Amino acid sequence: MPVPLLGAVPSPPTTFDGVTEALAVLVLLVVFAMMREALLRSQVRLYAFQSLAVAALAGVLGASQHAGELYVLAGLSVALKVVLVPAVVLRLLSAAEVDLAGSHRFGVATMVLLGVVVSVIGFLTVSNIPINSSGINSLPVPALSAAAATVLVSFVLVMFRADVVSQAVGFFSMENGVSVASLVVAARMPLILEVGFLFDLLVAGVAFGVLMRAHHRRSASLSTETLDQLRG
C-alpha cells in the first residue's frame, strides 16, 4: 500500500526570484549604509545607487514579462532619481559649502540597532499577510517584506538625523521602498500612475531644495536643531 505524501515539495526558487529578491534586499541595505555615513555627498550618492537598484528591478521585471511600460518606468527612474535629483542636491551642497551631516539624536550604533529592530518588525508583519504573488504580474513576496523594511528604516533616518539633507534623503529612500512595494503588488500598474508617483518625487525634491537654500541662508547651517526653537 503506497504511503501518502505528507505535503507537496515546494518548487525551488527560479533565477528571476533570486535576482529580484537580491535587488530588493540591496535597496534595504543601502538605507543602513546611509545611517552610517556622515558625509552628506556620500548619502546623496548612496541614494542614487539605491534608485539605480530600483530601476534595475523594474527592468528585470519588464524583461521577464515583456512589458514595455516597465522599461519606460526604469528609464524615467534613472533620469529622475539617479541623475536629476542627486545632481540638484549636490549642487545645493556645493553652494552651501557644507559636507558633514548634522548631529544625531542618537549615536550611529543606536540608530543602526533601531533600524534592525524596525526592519525585523516589517519582515515579520508582511510575511504574515496573505498575498498571492504566484501570478506573472508580481514579484516574490519576500521582496515586499524588504520594501516594507526599507520604508520603516528610512523613516528612522528621517526622524533621528538632525539636518535637512539627511532627512530629504531619508524621505526619497522611503519613496524607493514604496516603488519596490508597488512592483510587488501591482507590477503592471498603468504607466500614468507610475509617472504620477515620479512627478510627486520631483515636487518633493524641489520643495526640499527650496527649504535647504532658505534654511542655510537664514542660519548658515543645514541643521534642523535651530528649528526646535520655533515650537511654542
Quick summary:
By secondary structure, the chain is an all-alpha fold. It has helices spanning about 15-35, 40-65, 70-95, 110-125, 140-160, 165-185, 190-220.
Can you give keywords for this protein?
72% helix, mainly alpha, 0% strand, 232 residues
Q: Mind telling me the C-alpha Rg? A: 20 Å
Q: Could you describe the largest sheet, including whether it forms a barrel?
A: none
Described by its quaternary structure, the protein is single chain
Show unreliable segments. 5-9, 133-137
Mean pLDDT reading: 76
Number of strands: 0
Count of domain modules: 1
The N- and C-terminal alpha carbons lie at a distance of 80 Å
Question: Class by helix and strand content?
Answer: mainly alpha
Query: If helices are DSSP runs of H or I spanning 4 or more residues, what is the number of helices?
Result: 7
**Could you estimate the helical fraction of the residues in percent?**
over 70%
Encode the helix/strand succession as letters. Answer: HHHHHHH
Instruction: Give the amount of beta strand, in percent.
Output: under 5%
Principal-axis shape equals globular
Q: Which helices and strands appear, and what pairs or packs with what?
A:
Layout: H1 15-36, H2 40-65, H3 68-96, H4 108-127, H5 141-160, H6 164-185, H7 191-219
Helix pairs in contact: 1-2, 1-5, 1-6, 2-3, 2-6, 3-7, 4-5, 5-6, 6-7
